[in-house]
Specification:
single chain; 157 residues; mainly alpha; 3 helices; 80% helix
């Protein structure tokens, strides 16, 4: 099999496009996680400000005690919501990443196949690989007792 410069360039471009797509997918995934983390921090900051405001508005120690005991239950609710939100975010991000990655791999396979088909004169890939590996197939023949290889039915080039 002979790959000319044009075919090598075509395959290089296909692989480079795939690389850029995978990098873009990783960036999008990181942005989704960053957005989820930012929303979580905003929720916590809002709740902390609300709790601090209620404590500042307390007129006596009893009211302050009721507000502070209420904070424990509110914190437990927030933690439960945060865990649930983390599970939902994980599932959504992983699903989005997996489907986009599958599409990227499929597109890469199709583009690579088209580039190889162009360069190999529209031969099937199995024929192309067989021609390419023909020089090495004789190494798979069993050895004779003297350590020599049995003659194979190799096609001369």
């Amino acid at each position: 099999m002979y790959l000319d410069a044009k075919s090598s360039l075509s395959l290089f471009k296909v692989n480079l496009q795939f690389y850029f797509r995978v990098c873009d997918l990783m960036r999008e995934n990181a942005l989704r996680w960053g957005d989820a983390g930012s929303r979580s921090l905003d929720t916590c900051a809002t709740e902390l400000e609300s709790a601090a405001t209620r404590m500042l508005d307390a007129s006596d120690w009893n009211t302050l005690g009721v507000v502070s005991s209420d904070l424990l239950w509110k914190a437990m609710q927030l933690q439960t919501q945060a865990v649930q939100h983390l599970a939902e975010t994980t599932l959504a991000n992983q699903t989005a990443f997996n489907s986009a990655a599958q599409e990227a791999v499929s597109n890469w396979q199709q583009a690579s196949s088209a580039a190889l088909k162009e360069t190999s004169g529209a031969m099937p890939i199995s024929t192309t690989l067989q021609d390419y590996l023909q020089d090495y197939l004789h190494l798979l023949t069993p050895l004779e007792p003297g350590g020599r290889r049995k003659p194979s039915a190799r096609k001369p080039h």
